[in-house]
Amino acid sequence: MFTPIFRRQLLQSSKHARCFSSTRVVATADVKHLGVIGAGQMGLGIALVAAQKAGVPVTLVDTNQASIDKGLKFADKLLAKDVSKERITQDQADKIRSLLSTTTSMDSLSSVDFVIEAVPEIPSLKFSIFESLAQICQPHTILATNTSSISITRIAASTTKDPTDTSASSRVVSTHFMNPVPIQKGVEIITGLQTSQETVDTAIAFCKKMGKIPSQSADSPGFLANRILMPYINEAIICLETGVGRRDDIDAIMKNGTNVPMGPLQLADFIGIDTCLAIMKVLHEETGDSKYRPSVLLGKMVDAGWLGKKSGKGFYDY
Ligand code: NAD
Q1: Residues 6+ apart with CB under 8 A from 279
Q2: Residue of 14, 21, 146, 148 marked active site
Q3: For 272-289, what is the mean pLDDT?
Q4: What's this model's pTM, rounded to 2 decimal places?
Q5: Residues that bind NAD(+), according to the entry (predicted)?
Q6: Is 120 close to ligand 1, i.e. is its CB under 6 Å away?
Q7: CATH number of 224-311
Protein backbone atom coordinates (compact mmCIF):
# COMPACT_ATOMS: atom_id res chain seq x y z
CA MET A 1 0.00 0.00 0.00
CA PHE A 2 1.27 3.52 -0.77
CA THR A 3 1.37 5.99 2.12
CA PRO A 4 -0.49 9.27 1.50
CA ILE A 5 2.86 11.14 1.21
CA PHE A 6 4.25 8.69 -1.31
CA ARG A 7 1.02 8.73 -3.32
CA ARG A 8 0.95 12.52 -3.24
CA GLN A 9 4.57 12.74 -4.47
CA LEU A 10 3.92 10.33 -7.33
CA LEU A 11 0.72 12.04 -8.32
CA GLN A 12 2.23 15.47 -7.89
CA SER A 13 5.03 14.76 -10.32
CA SER A 14 2.78 13.46 -13.08
CA LYS A 15 0.18 16.20 -12.46
CA HIS A 16 2.82 18.96 -12.68
CA ALA A 17 4.24 17.46 -15.82
CA ARG A 18 0.79 17.15 -17.40
CA CYS A 19 0.10 20.82 -16.69
CA PHE A 20 3.39 22.10 -18.04
CA SER A 21 4.39 19.68 -20.75
CA SER A 22 3.03 19.27 -24.22
CA THR A 23 6.04 17.32 -25.47
CA ARG A 24 5.25 14.10 -27.32
CA VAL A 25 7.61 11.38 -26.24
CA VAL A 26 8.28 8.22 -28.18
CA ALA A 27 5.76 5.39 -27.78
CA THR A 28 7.38 2.21 -26.44
CA ALA A 29 6.91 0.24 -29.61
CA ASP A 30 8.90 2.97 -31.36
CA VAL A 31 12.00 2.56 -29.18
CA LYS A 32 14.08 1.33 -32.09
CA HIS A 33 17.50 2.44 -30.93
CA LEU A 34 18.96 2.74 -27.43
CA GLY A 35 21.93 4.83 -26.29
CA VAL A 36 23.87 3.98 -23.12
CA ILE A 37 26.44 6.34 -21.61
CA GLY A 38 29.18 4.68 -19.54
CA ALA A 39 30.53 1.22 -20.39
CA GLY A 40 31.26 0.30 -16.75
CA GLN A 41 29.65 -2.58 -14.91
CA MET A 42 26.13 -1.09 -15.03
CA GLY A 43 26.19 0.48 -18.51
CA LEU A 44 27.62 -2.64 -20.11
CA GLY A 45 25.01 -4.83 -18.39
CA ILE A 46 22.17 -2.53 -19.46
CA ALA A 47 23.42 -2.45 -23.07
CA LEU A 48 23.80 -6.22 -23.24
CA VAL A 49 20.38 -6.99 -21.74
CA ALA A 50 18.68 -4.42 -24.02
CA ALA A 51 20.27 -6.07 -27.07
CA GLN A 52 19.50 -9.58 -25.83
CA LYS A 53 15.95 -9.18 -24.48
CA ALA A 54 14.53 -6.11 -26.24
CA GLY A 55 16.41 -6.85 -29.49
CA VAL A 56 17.28 -3.21 -30.16
CA PRO A 57 20.55 -1.80 -31.49
CA VAL A 58 22.54 -0.12 -28.74
CA THR A 59 25.11 2.66 -29.07
CA LEU A 60 27.42 2.50 -26.06
CA VAL A 61 29.36 5.70 -25.28
CA ASP A 62 32.36 5.94 -22.97
CA THR A 63 35.07 8.62 -22.92
CA ASN A 64 37.59 5.96 -21.90
CA GLN A 65 38.48 3.52 -24.72
CA ALA A 66 39.97 1.10 -22.16
CA SER A 67 36.56 0.86 -20.42
CA ILE A 68 34.91 0.10 -23.77
CA ASP A 69 37.45 -2.63 -24.55
CA LYS A 70 37.08 -4.15 -21.08
CA GLY A 71 33.28 -3.98 -21.32
CA LEU A 72 33.11 -5.66 -24.72
CA LYS A 73 35.45 -8.41 -23.54
CA PHE A 74 33.12 -9.00 -20.62
CA ALA A 75 30.07 -9.04 -22.95
CA ASP A 76 31.79 -11.66 -25.12
CA LYS A 77 32.51 -13.74 -22.01
CA LEU A 78 28.88 -13.58 -20.85
CA LEU A 79 27.55 -14.50 -24.30
CA ALA A 80 30.02 -17.40 -24.61
CA LYS A 81 28.83 -18.68 -21.22
CA ASP A 82 25.18 -18.48 -22.38
CA VAL A 83 26.10 -20.47 -25.51
CA SER A 84 28.05 -23.09 -23.55
CA LYS A 85 25.10 -23.55 -21.17
CA GLU A 86 22.78 -23.83 -24.22
CA ARG A 87 20.69 -20.85 -23.10
CA ILE A 88 21.22 -19.32 -26.56
CA THR A 89 22.69 -20.54 -29.86
CA GLN A 90 25.92 -19.22 -31.37
CA ASP A 91 23.82 -17.51 -34.09
CA GLN A 92 21.78 -15.72 -31.45
CA ALA A 93 24.95 -14.68 -29.60
CA ASP A 94 26.40 -13.29 -32.85
CA LYS A 95 23.15 -11.39 -33.53
CA ILE A 96 23.15 -9.88 -30.01
CA ARG A 97 26.82 -8.90 -30.31
CA SER A 98 26.17 -7.27 -33.70
CA LEU A 99 23.57 -5.01 -32.06
CA LEU A 100 26.24 -3.42 -29.83
CA SER A 101 28.23 -0.52 -31.27
CA THR A 102 30.63 1.69 -29.33
CA THR A 103 31.94 5.23 -29.55
CA THR A 104 33.75 7.84 -27.45
CA SER A 105 31.50 10.68 -28.65
CA MET A 106 28.08 11.57 -27.23
CA ASP A 107 27.23 13.21 -30.57
CA SER A 108 26.51 9.68 -31.83
CA LEU A 109 23.33 9.73 -29.73
CA SER A 110 21.56 12.15 -32.05
CA SER A 111 19.34 9.44 -33.52
CA VAL A 112 18.49 7.28 -30.47
CA ASP A 113 14.93 7.09 -29.08
CA PHE A 114 15.89 6.27 -25.50
CA VAL A 115 19.14 6.95 -23.66
CA ILE A 116 20.29 5.58 -20.31
CA GLU A 117 23.14 7.36 -18.53
CA ALA A 118 25.38 5.17 -16.30
CA VAL A 119 28.51 7.26 -15.56
CA PRO A 120 30.02 7.50 -12.03
CA GLU A 121 27.86 8.88 -9.21
CA ILE A 122 29.21 12.47 -9.44
CA PRO A 123 26.42 15.10 -9.53
CA SER A 124 28.29 17.71 -11.65
CA LEU A 125 29.20 15.02 -14.23
CA LYS A 126 25.58 13.84 -14.56
CA PHE A 127 24.28 17.44 -14.79
CA SER A 128 26.67 18.32 -17.60
CA ILE A 129 25.77 15.12 -19.49
CA PHE A 130 22.02 15.88 -19.30
CA GLU A 131 22.61 19.47 -20.38
CA SER A 132 24.40 18.08 -23.46
CA LEU A 133 21.79 15.37 -24.10
CA ALA A 134 19.03 17.99 -24.27
CA GLN A 135 20.97 19.57 -27.14
CA ILE A 136 22.13 16.42 -28.91
CA CYS A 137 19.05 14.15 -28.78
CA GLN A 138 15.80 14.38 -30.69
CA PRO A 139 12.76 16.16 -29.19
CA HIS A 140 11.08 12.80 -28.50
CA THR A 141 14.02 10.98 -26.90
CA ILE A 142 13.57 9.69 -23.34
CA LEU A 143 16.52 10.75 -21.17
CA ALA A 144 16.97 8.19 -18.38
CA THR A 145 19.55 8.02 -15.60
CA ASN A 146 20.79 5.03 -13.64
CA THR A 147 21.76 7.20 -10.66
CA SER A 148 21.77 5.47 -7.28
CA SER A 149 20.97 8.53 -5.23
CA ILE A 150 21.01 11.89 -7.01
CA SER A 151 17.70 13.79 -7.23
CA ILE A 152 15.93 13.18 -10.55
CA THR A 153 14.30 16.61 -10.28
CA ARG A 154 17.77 18.18 -10.10
CA ILE A 155 19.10 16.10 -13.02
CA ALA A 156 16.01 17.09 -15.06
CA ALA A 157 16.55 20.76 -14.17
CA SER A 158 20.04 20.60 -15.65
CA THR A 159 18.59 20.15 -19.15
CA THR A 160 17.54 23.81 -19.36
CA LYS A 161 18.35 27.30 -18.09
CA ASP A 162 14.64 28.20 -18.32
CA PRO A 163 12.69 26.24 -15.66
CA THR A 164 9.37 27.05 -17.39
CA ASP A 165 10.54 25.18 -20.50
CA THR A 166 9.88 21.51 -19.71
CA SER A 167 10.34 20.24 -23.26
CA ALA A 168 13.45 18.29 -22.21
CA SER A 169 13.00 17.98 -18.42
CA SER A 170 9.62 16.25 -18.85
CA ARG A 171 11.48 13.44 -20.68
CA VAL A 172 13.90 12.80 -17.80
CA VAL A 173 13.25 9.75 -15.62
CA SER A 174 15.30 7.28 -13.61
CA THR A 175 15.58 3.66 -14.62
CA HIS A 176 17.64 2.40 -11.69
CA PHE A 177 18.81 -1.08 -12.62
CA MET A 178 20.15 -3.46 -10.00
CA ASN A 179 23.60 -5.05 -10.13
CA PRO A 180 24.41 -7.38 -11.91
CA VAL A 181 21.96 -6.26 -14.60
CA PRO A 182 21.91 -9.56 -16.55
CA ILE A 183 20.79 -11.38 -13.37
CA GLN A 184 18.74 -9.04 -11.16
CA LYS A 185 15.14 -8.61 -12.26
CA GLY A 186 14.33 -5.47 -10.28
CA VAL A 187 14.44 -1.92 -11.62
CA GLU A 188 13.33 1.23 -9.79
CA ILE A 189 11.46 3.84 -11.81
CA ILE A 190 11.83 7.27 -10.20
CA THR A 191 10.11 10.40 -11.41
CA GLY A 192 11.23 13.98 -11.00
CA LEU A 193 8.79 16.81 -10.47
CA GLN A 194 8.96 17.57 -14.20
CA THR A 195 8.62 13.99 -15.52
CA SER A 196 5.59 13.44 -17.76
CA GLN A 197 3.29 10.44 -17.40
CA GLU A 198 4.10 9.40 -20.98
CA THR A 199 7.79 9.28 -20.07
CA VAL A 200 7.06 7.09 -17.04
CA ASP A 201 4.83 4.77 -19.07
CA THR A 202 7.45 4.42 -21.80
CA ALA A 203 10.23 3.77 -19.29
CA ILE A 204 8.19 1.09 -17.52
CA ALA A 205 7.21 -0.59 -20.78
CA PHE A 206 10.77 -0.56 -22.11
CA CYS A 207 12.14 -2.03 -18.86
CA LYS A 208 9.52 -4.79 -19.12
CA LYS A 209 10.66 -5.43 -22.68
CA MET A 210 14.14 -5.91 -21.20
CA GLY A 211 12.66 -8.61 -18.97
CA LYS A 212 12.73 -6.49 -15.80
CA ILE A 213 10.16 -6.02 -13.04
CA PRO A 214 9.71 -2.31 -12.31
CA SER A 215 8.91 -0.79 -8.90
CA GLN A 216 8.03 2.88 -8.59
CA SER A 217 9.66 5.18 -6.04
CA ALA A 218 9.33 8.85 -5.16
CA ASP A 219 12.28 11.22 -5.77
CA SER A 220 13.69 11.02 -2.25
CA PRO A 221 17.37 10.55 -1.20
CA GLY A 222 18.42 6.95 -1.89
CA PHE A 223 14.96 6.21 -3.35
CA LEU A 224 13.82 2.81 -2.07
CA ALA A 225 16.55 0.25 -2.74
CA ASN A 226 19.55 2.23 -1.52
CA ARG A 227 17.77 3.92 1.35
CA ILE A 228 17.29 0.44 2.75
CA LEU A 229 20.46 -1.29 1.49
CA MET A 230 23.22 1.31 2.05
CA PRO A 231 22.74 1.91 5.78
CA TYR A 232 22.93 -1.89 6.15
CA ILE A 233 26.27 -2.02 4.29
CA ASN A 234 27.56 1.08 6.12
CA GLU A 235 26.68 -0.46 9.49
CA ALA A 236 28.58 -3.63 8.56
CA ILE A 237 31.66 -1.48 7.78
CA ILE A 238 31.28 0.35 11.12
CA CYS A 239 31.13 -3.06 12.84
CA LEU A 240 34.43 -3.94 11.12
CA GLU A 241 36.20 -0.65 11.91
CA THR A 242 35.12 -0.64 15.56
CA GLY A 243 36.09 -4.26 16.07
CA VAL A 244 32.62 -5.64 16.73
CA GLY A 245 33.33 -8.39 14.22
CA ARG A 246 35.91 -9.62 11.74
CA ARG A 247 35.29 -9.45 7.98
CA ASP A 248 34.50 -13.13 7.54
CA ASP A 249 32.27 -13.28 10.62
CA ILE A 250 30.26 -10.23 9.51
CA ASP A 251 29.69 -11.65 6.03
CA ALA A 252 29.06 -15.19 7.29
CA ILE A 253 26.40 -14.26 9.83
CA MET A 254 24.40 -12.19 7.34
CA LYS A 255 24.82 -14.72 4.53
CA ASN A 256 23.93 -17.72 6.65
CA GLY A 257 21.48 -15.92 8.87
CA THR A 258 19.37 -14.04 6.34
CA ASN A 259 19.68 -16.33 3.33
CA VAL A 260 21.28 -13.75 1.00
CA PRO A 261 23.85 -14.85 -1.63
CA MET A 262 26.67 -12.73 -0.14
CA GLY A 263 27.44 -10.78 3.02
CA PRO A 264 27.40 -6.94 3.18
CA LEU A 265 31.19 -6.42 2.84
CA GLN A 266 31.45 -8.63 -0.22
CA LEU A 267 28.37 -6.91 -1.63
CA ALA A 268 30.03 -3.50 -1.09
CA ASP A 269 33.01 -4.77 -3.12
CA PHE A 270 30.70 -5.84 -5.94
CA ILE A 271 28.76 -2.54 -5.94
CA GLY A 272 31.98 -0.45 -5.76
CA ILE A 273 33.31 1.18 -2.57
CA ASP A 274 33.27 4.62 -4.28
CA THR A 275 29.62 4.15 -5.27
CA CYS A 276 28.71 3.15 -1.68
CA LEU A 277 30.48 6.25 -0.30
CA ALA A 278 28.80 8.55 -2.84
CA ILE A 279 25.34 7.21 -1.94
CA MET A 280 25.93 7.50 1.82
CA LYS A 281 27.11 11.10 1.33
CA VAL A 282 23.92 11.98 -0.55
CA LEU A 283 21.74 10.32 2.12
CA HIS A 284 23.65 12.13 4.90
CA GLU A 285 23.81 15.56 3.27
CA GLU A 286 20.27 15.62 1.90
CA THR A 287 18.49 14.36 5.00
CA GLY A 288 20.85 15.94 7.56
CA ASP A 289 20.23 12.80 9.61
CA SER A 290 23.32 11.54 11.49
CA LYS A 291 22.13 7.95 11.13
CA TYR A 292 23.38 8.12 7.52
CA ARG A 293 26.96 9.24 8.44
CA PRO A 294 29.37 7.35 6.11
CA SER A 295 31.80 5.13 7.99
CA VAL A 296 35.33 6.59 8.27
CA LEU A 297 36.79 3.37 6.85
CA LEU A 298 34.62 3.71 3.73
CA GLY A 299 36.21 7.12 2.98
CA LYS A 300 39.72 5.81 3.68
CA MET A 301 39.26 2.90 1.30
CA VAL A 302 38.28 5.28 -1.49
CA ASP A 303 41.36 7.42 -0.68
CA ALA A 304 43.49 4.26 -1.00
CA GLY A 305 41.92 3.38 -4.35
CA TRP A 306 40.52 0.14 -2.91
CA LEU A 307 37.24 0.34 -4.79
CA GLY A 308 36.28 -3.33 -4.61
CA LYS A 309 36.10 -5.89 -7.39
CA LYS A 310 36.54 -3.36 -10.20
CA SER A 311 39.95 -2.18 -8.88
CA GLY A 312 41.15 -5.63 -7.81
CA LYS A 313 41.07 -4.83 -4.07
CA GLY A 314 38.39 -3.95 -1.56
CA PHE A 315 37.41 -5.83 1.57
CA TYR A 316 38.60 -8.87 -0.40
CA ASP A 317 41.35 -9.31 -3.03
CA TYR A 318 40.32 -10.13 -6.62
P1 NAD B 1 31.70 2.29 -13.22
O2 NAD B 1 32.73 3.11 -12.54
O3 NAD B 1 31.85 0.81 -13.29
O4 NAD B 1 31.48 2.81 -14.75
C5 NAD B 1 31.33 4.15 -15.11
C6 NAD B 1 31.80 4.33 -16.55
O7 NAD B 1 31.51 5.66 -16.98
C8 NAD B 1 33.32 4.14 -16.72
O9 NAD B 1 33.55 3.18 -17.74
C10 NAD B 1 33.82 5.52 -17.13
O11 NAD B 1 34.91 5.47 -18.04
C12 NAD B 1 32.57 6.10 -17.80
N13 NAD B 1 32.55 7.57 -17.88
C14 NAD B 1 33.05 8.48 -17.00
N15 NAD B 1 32.79 9.73 -17.44
C16 NAD B 1 32.13 9.60 -18.61
C17 NAD B 1 31.59 10.53 -19.55
N18 NAD B 1 31.68 11.84 -19.36
N19 NAD B 1 30.98 10.05 -20.66
C20 NAD B 1 30.88 8.71 -20.88
N21 NAD B 1 31.38 7.79 -20.02
C22 NAD B 1 31.98 8.22 -18.90
O23 NAD B 1 30.32 2.68 -12.51
P24 NAD B 1 29.00 1.77 -12.33
O25 NAD B 1 29.15 0.92 -11.13
O26 NAD B 1 28.67 1.15 -13.65
O27 NAD B 1 27.92 2.90 -11.94
C28 NAD B 1 27.36 3.74 -12.93
C29 NAD B 1 26.10 4.39 -12.36
O30 NAD B 1 25.18 3.37 -11.98
C31 NAD B 1 26.33 5.25 -11.11
O32 NAD B 1 25.45 6.33 -11.12
C33 NAD B 1 25.99 4.29 -9.98
O34 NAD B 1 25.60 4.97 -8.81
C35 NAD B 1 24.81 3.55 -10.61
N36 NAD B 1 24.53 2.22 -10.03
C37 NAD B 1 25.56 1.41 -9.66
C38 NAD B 1 25.26 0.16 -9.13
C39 NAD B 1 26.37 -0.76 -8.72
O40 NAD B 1 26.09 -1.76 -8.03
N41 NAD B 1 27.60 -0.50 -9.11
C42 NAD B 1 23.93 -0.27 -9.00
C43 NAD B 1 22.91 0.58 -9.43
C44 NAD B 1 23.22 1.83 -9.93
Answers
A1: 121, 148, 149, 222, 226, 230
A2: 148
A3: 95
A4: 0.88
A5: 38-43, 62, 121, 126, 148, 179, 310
A6: yes
A7: 1.10.1040.10
